[in-house]
Amino acid sequence: MSPAPNSLLRDGWLVRLCLARALMMLPAMSYAGALPLLRTEWSMSATAAGSISTSSQLGYAVSLLALSWLADRVGARRVFVVSSVVSGVAAIAFALFARSYASAIVLHTLASMAQGGTYTTLIMLFADRYPPERRGTAVGWLIAALSLGYALSLAVTGLMLPFGGYPAAFIVTSAGCVVGAVIAIAALRDTPNVVHARSATRGFGGDVLTNRHAMLLMAGYTAHSWELLGMWAWVPAFIAATLVLSGSQALEATQLGAYAAAAFHLVGLVASSSMGRLSDRLGRRAVLIGCAAIAAACSFTFGWLVAAPAALVLIVGAIYAFTAIGDSPVLSTAMTEAVPATYLGSALAIRSLLGFGAGAIAPLTFGAILDATNPARATASEWGWAFVALGAGGLIATVCAWTLPRARASARAVRA
């Protein structure tokens, strides 16, 4: 039975899984947080630096595709538990052995692939547990936990850099992943492993591929991921660049850039928790349109502020962070309502491949544009066009949201 409407935050199952999710994400941003220093220590161009993020995101996308499809057939809980164990092992391997561009691109990709079974499987478990009228709020807290994990990852990285450099940052964050996996497995000890029957459905083609609502959500999610994942990968370095251009030293700028990006992820935590709940009240479409449109405007503005006063950069960055992540729980919740539970894993698999595939290309594209617009410069001072490229995704996401049916998604939920 689902918890009462006002008791979600007293639901120990939800709280423990959200805490576990946050801890398991601790390694996720340690590379991005240390990136300005790693570019020097590993002799990487911006394109090479972006390629590590791209490779890991592509690996994550492929893993999500395979493991989300598998979850439909063997159960989401089973896939999540196994993936959690593998994630902890892979995170430790990255922390101990990533010491160059070549080793990092391999180990970071493997660590990301190990995480592939821990995201959509949780959305499936939440969809089984919570009814549509409360699902946006519940999934919002799950995505908020993701933002908290990213913020902690950047904060811990910034804290550890002066003491033990990037190796210490990698080790501490990977240990958090192991702790999170233990908490998650314990939380799911009494949760049934559900495999939904398919006899009453129209098949994957009828329920997903020819489902206009689901296809619009997939397209919107793909564009959203391009903008969001590209922004996440480069915002710490962008903040560091603004500080270097204003006179800060490289180490200090990198540390402060990590802290500022962590603060942006905390803003994202508020966005995810509040926008999921707001979509339960106003409908998914309205919230998706608002978030996507404002995020696109921020993408077209943010990069040109590299030499602006720090206060302005932080204000615009906070708005950017809020809106770019604010539609994430709404997109995920809407997908659980657009397709039957029998094919939810497979639908999320395709969505994840498209979304994280686009998100994987975005950091590389961003880095290539950064190199092209800053030839032979040790510190990039031209960031506008790279962020404009991300804004194209925001525009497409806005159009997709606008084209969705106007009726409230919760009222149109598919009862599988």
Structure description:
This protein has helices at 12-24, 30-41, 46-74, 76-97, 101-114, 120-129, 132-187, 203-209, 212-245, 250-282, 284-302, 310-326, 328-338, 344-373, 384-403. The chain is globular, with a radius of gyration of 20 Å. It starts with 11 loop residues before the first helix and ends in a 13-residue tail after the last helix. By secondary structure, the chain is mainly alpha-helical.
Secondary-structure blueprint of this entry?
Layout: H1 12-24, H2 30-41, H3 46-74, H4 76-97, H5 101-114, H6 120-129, H7 132-187, H8 203-209, H9 212-245, H10 250-282, H11 284-302, H12 310-326, H13 328-338, H14 344-373, H15 384-403
Helix pairs in contact: 1-7, 2-7, 2-9, 2-10, 3-4, 3-5, 3-14, 4-5, 4-6, 4-7, 6-7, 7-10, 7-13, 9-10, 9-12, 9-13, 9-14, 9-15, 10-11, 10-12, 10-13, 11-12, 11-15, 14-15
Short structural description:
Helices cover 79% and strands 0% of the residues. The protein has 416 residues and is mostly helical.
